[in-house]
Amino acid sequence: MLKTLKKHWFLIVCSLVFGLYFAFLALVFFAPHQDARSRGFVKCTTQMMQQLPLCQKSKIWCTFKIVIKNNYCDFKVVKEGFVLWLDGYEPKPWSYYYFTPTSHEPPVLENEALKEYYQTHQNIVQEMEDLNQKAIELEKQQEKLKHDSVPQ
After folding, report:
1. What does pTM read for this prediction?
2. Any idea where the domains of the chain sit in the sequence?
């Protein structure tokens, strides 16, 4: 058995590394990615989705870099969850990124002026998403103008 381990140690180590990475990908895949409080992997997903449309030239290389940055961010989230569990802030190591997501609900308001504002502007979440989309489009246009203005 020791000879077999000696002979195939590289394959065993590579299989172990790939197995751990695929377990990490499954962990990220099944975790919630939308939450009103931006817990867990939500901030990483949001950053990645904001950066992806900005890839204009060399789309493959740019997308690859963004995915690698997202993986690094996901690793940091897992590490933060584990540290919070060790410090006693979380009941389980996975509680930081496996949770029941909260939806965007209008807050309970005491002020009459705010109540009136929320009644006239019912869908603030949609308005914010529209503004974020417009910001991304504006950044795309600025990138395009910057690349077009460079002399060739």
Report:
1. 0.59
2. 32-103, 104-142
